[in-house]
DUF3027 domain-containing protein
Amino acid sequence: MDSVTEEVEQPASDPTDTAVEVPAELATVLTGAVEMARAAIEEFSEDGVVGEYLGASFDDPTAATHRFLADVPGYQGWQWAVVVAAYPGSERATVSEVVLVPGPTALLAPAWVPWHERVQPGDLGPGDLLSPQADDPRLVPGFLGVGDPDLDEVANEVGFGRRQVLSQWGRMDAAQRWYDGDYGPGSAMARATRRLCRECGFYLPLAGSLGPSFGVCGNEMSADGHVVASEYGCGAHSDTPAPASIGSPMFDPFDDGVLDLADQ
């Protein structure tokens, strides 16, 4: 028996293979079941509204899917998909399934995101509680130290220390986030000046292992209270020169309020 290879473009939401070898006679039976598929939708749906026929695609050698536009309120861009099947030698197909599926232009709800991933920086408000994730890679037991040799030595000798501290990965993660953020050397503000924070009198270096690279800005007219990279800079640097005086240096100013007016 002759066979044909049907290549049908699938919607973006359907990962089914686009080329299936189907015997010619069986392909005719499957593709000819358009009206049967339409009748199945009308029987299945409450409104019985079926839109334009969009074509058929083969799922395997004995089944095909017929698609119709769905004229259903609230489902713009969706499609009716009717799966029909037949075995070799059959004179007619049977309906296997009727479903409503999203088309390429369908409006879909965003993908579900776990709660701990939905919380973003800035979401925490007064009175809110936010615990770290279990086995948070940013935290390690306090007895492992904070990475600063002087602090770790003193803490271990005295027996003091926090229950948990930032791990090396946590420190590097924070450093990369700060470096790439609004107060890093790549920001628009930093690129607009040649002056660096590490040379500024308002720059307060951090203690510990991040000290050489980061500090806190103490200038209320600039990035006051924010962690800034040592290579960040702004126009409010402590060495910014004062603007030139206004007026013309060639002439002395005068006050016309003290001039004497005389009649001609």
Observations:
- The radius of gyration is 36 Å.
- The chain is about 20% helix and 25% strand.
- The mean pLDDT is 80.
